[in-house]
Amino acid sequence: MWKIIFIMASVQDGEGSETGQVAVEVLETIQEIHRLLPHRTFVVALRTSGNGIWRDASHTHQACRDQLSVYKGHQRYNHESVWEQVEKIVGHNFQKHNFTVEILPLLKDPALGNLPDETDLSPLGYDCAHFSERGLSLLHLAIWNSILTRSRERSEQFRPVTTQVACPDPRCPFIRTQENSVMCIWRENVDSNAPPMAPRLIVMGVLLLTILLSLLVLICVCRQRRASGFKKQIKPFGASFSSIKFIDEDVI
């Protein structure tokens, strides 16, 4: 039986140092999971390299600005280059047949939604650092839709707003990975109840063949009529003998 494990570390979960930043801790967690559960394990990790949500919260309310000020060191040690290195290490070492890791870029460039008069802070909890129940619910929905989307089309801009729940394509693997995203053609918004194309192709082929045969017969008939119009009328042999005059014949 396969096991699926989600790693949803936020910027505030690191230690605020070069060696203790979130990306490094996520990589260490993946290594530990691989050591303990090396077979039939699927790990989904969020790339929390963006600070947009917490930056919006700080700009919106003074209370959030005060509470998030203690995490300035965490935000400073959350480099894009470190996350890029983590993704390369994961792709090289943890993309195996029985153990695979997918890093979702949802929180690479996140932002809060807007209300008519102000920024919507409801996705965040009372400390403005972690998600509220509503925020987690919307994040879980975005994660679900992301793992059903092929890798290069996954969104990098999480917005805590309600979206439609995606359904897996029955012709493709349930969870998208780097490998099966290349091998399987993703067909979005295709009606599964649509009639098959084979009968339509057969009818079109028969119709096209009938038209071609009709044109061929018409061309042959026209060529025969045209050839018969150029034939000369040949008189039978001896029909003009009466008009032949001999040299010694007297003219009467």
UniProtKB/TrEMBL annotation:
<keyword id="KW-1133">Transmembrane helix</keyword>
<dbReference type="GO" id="GO:0006644">
    <property type="term" value="P:phospholipid metabolic process"/>
</dbReference>
<protein>
    <recommendedName>
        <fullName>SGNH domain-containing protein</fullName>
    </recommendedName>
</protein>
<feature type="transmembrane region" description="Helical">
    <location>
        <begin position="201"/>
        <end position="222"/>
    </location>
</feature>
<dbReference type="InterPro" id="IPR038885">
    <property type="entry name" value="PLB1"/>
</dbReference>
<keyword id="KW-0472">Membrane</keyword>
<dbReference type="GO" id="GO:0004620">
    <property type="term" value="F:phospholipase activity"/>
</dbReference>
<keyword id="KW-0812">Transmembrane</keyword>
